[in-house]
Amino acid sequence: MADIQIFGEEAEPKRPLWRAMWRGWRGRCPSCGEGHVYDGFVKTIDDCSVCGEHIAHHRADDLPPYLNIFITGHVIVGFLILGMNWFDWSPWVHMAIWMPITLVMVFALMRPIKGAVIGLQWANRMHGFGGAEDTFDPDHPSRDGHG
Question: What is the predicted pLDDT for the residue at 59?
Answer without folding.
Answer: 85
